[in-house]
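Aim 2, interim progress: modelling of the coenzyme A-bound target.
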Amino acid sequence: MRATEQRDRAARLISATEQRDRAARPSSATDQRDVGAPCANHIARRDGARRGVRLPCARVLPIDFPSPPLDDGVIALRGFDEDDVADVVRACQDPEIPRFTVVPSPYTEREARAWIETHDLLRITRMAVPFAVVDARTRALVGSIGVHDLDSRSRKGEVGYWIAREHRGRGAATRALRLISRWALGELGLGRLELLADVHNVVSQRVAERAGFVREGVLRSAREIKGTRRDMVLYARLPTDDADREPDARKSG
Ligand SMILES: CC(C)(COP(=O)(O)OP(=O)(O)OC[C@H]1O[C@@H](n2cnc3c(N)ncnc32)[C@H](O)[C@@H]1OP(=O)(O)O)[C@@H](O)C(=O)NCCC(=O)NCCS
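Predicted structure of the complex, ligand included:
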């Protein structure tokens, strides 16, 4: 996509998101985090009894990456950049990734570049926040995790992830999922974080449970992956689940 087209698309998406968020804006304290500083160019008039009262309108701000970055001493999360393209392409050659995720197959440099180019737009429009999972010490790319399908009206989102084959079986996914969940249910303000794992994906189900997600049931034919409808196990974690789940959370730092 050319830069001008990308800018136009961003402007359209921002405008649609602003309208949607303004319509959904409740008066609850939690949602005030979305409201930007009063903007001189955006003075709104209210109807009815308040007609004529000049009020600052809500401004939709991009979702920023957490600062300091999420890091448990073993695994850290940061944004993807162009330098990750080769590692992403290499990791996504493993058939298990397209089998259980929406990552396309075949997967080339073109797909990786196009995907990474969407990331800023996704944060600007508050639709998703993709993170690279990296080794906290070497900073080598280990995998990918992100919250997506963010819904400001119900303060809900979904999490998805993959870990490169050579880094599996050492707790990377579990650690990354714990980090992103605490952030999404804390700083980001979600009231519910969902995770859908294919009924045959026992490893991912284990990761979900280890990271404090509660199994809620099976959604029949819930997702289409590579042209096939799949039954998915629905997991969710709530802010109030923190203390009760994660039996060995202390070990993960
Ligand atoms: C699912 C995935 C992210 C897990 O990554 P990982 O870093 O290896 O996961 P972890 O090491 O944190 O945990 C794996 C857990 O599954 C367990 N496990 C591994 N193979 C298993 C199997 N065949 N049956 C049951 N459990 C298994 C491990 O023992 C471990 O649990 P434990 O810590 O209690 O021992 C990785 O396999 C992957 O990228 N798969 C392809 C993409 C994918 O499925 N994404 C998820 C979509 S919902």
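The chain is about 30% helix and 25% strand. The longest strand covers residues 214-225.
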